[in-house]
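Milestone 3.1: sequence recovery, worked example.
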């Protein structure tokens, strides 16, 4: 069964039941009424009355009322926003050694990093962002931490400190509001921690993260 599809309105125009319809819209509804007649859902008298009303209709609401008790007039409810996945935590620990997370991996919502007499690399340039915000909590003691993000992701620093060491977050703001946000927290003691965007690395389809 065909579904009702009133003519598309120009971008930014009203689309409610009071929108005025075109001749093409009236023809589509008349066609759907003919199908209902052929299926025995309407008798001849009902069909004639509704077709006459369809061609006299001036608004979308008037046309839709002619189909409301027919299967074609029962519209499925619009899907709601996709629920967010459970916020997961990733732990990266390097003690007298090294640890790294890079390539294609799921970043989740929180990443805990501990570097003690060791080094940790957190490379998010090819990661899958299941959550719109990723919080990275860094503890660096006599070690080093390097964090890389795509150039079209927002990167911010929050509550980070360096004591006899360095904690450097090169902040960047994505132009697209759908882009994930990476926030770096923590401190470095006799250590170095750095977070920055990597030029040339981008998330290709930001729309897919929200739809």
């Amino acid at each position: 069964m065909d579904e009702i599809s009133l003519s598309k309105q120009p971008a930014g125009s009203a689309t409610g039941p009071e929108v005025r319809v075109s001749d093409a819209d009236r023809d589509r509804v008349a066609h759907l009424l003919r199908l209902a007649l052929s299926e025995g859902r309407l008798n001849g008298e009902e069909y004639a009355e509704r077709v006459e009303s369809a061609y006299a209709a001036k608004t979308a609401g008037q046309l839709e009322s002619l189909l409301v008790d027919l299967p074609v007039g029962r519209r499925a409810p619009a899907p709601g926003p996709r629920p967010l996945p459970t916020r997961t935590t990733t732990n990266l620990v390097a003690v007298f050694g090294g640890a790294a997370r890079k390539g294609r991996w799921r970043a989740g919502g929180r990443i805990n990093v501990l570097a003690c007499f060791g080094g940790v690399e957190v490379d998010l340039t090819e990661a899958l962002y299941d959550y719109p915000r990723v919080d990275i909590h860094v503890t660096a003691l006599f070690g080093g931490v390097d964090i890389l993000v795509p150039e079209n992701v927002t990167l911010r620093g929050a509550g980070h400190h360096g004591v006899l060491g360095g904690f450097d977050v090169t902040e960047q703001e994505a132009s697209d509001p759908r882009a994930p946000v990476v926030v770096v927290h923590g401190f470095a003691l006799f250590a170095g921690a750095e977070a920055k965007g990597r030029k040339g690395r981008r998330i290709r389809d930001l729309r897919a993260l929200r739809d």
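The two ends are 28 Å apart (CA to CA). Confidence is low (pLDDT under 50) at residues 1-14, 75-81.
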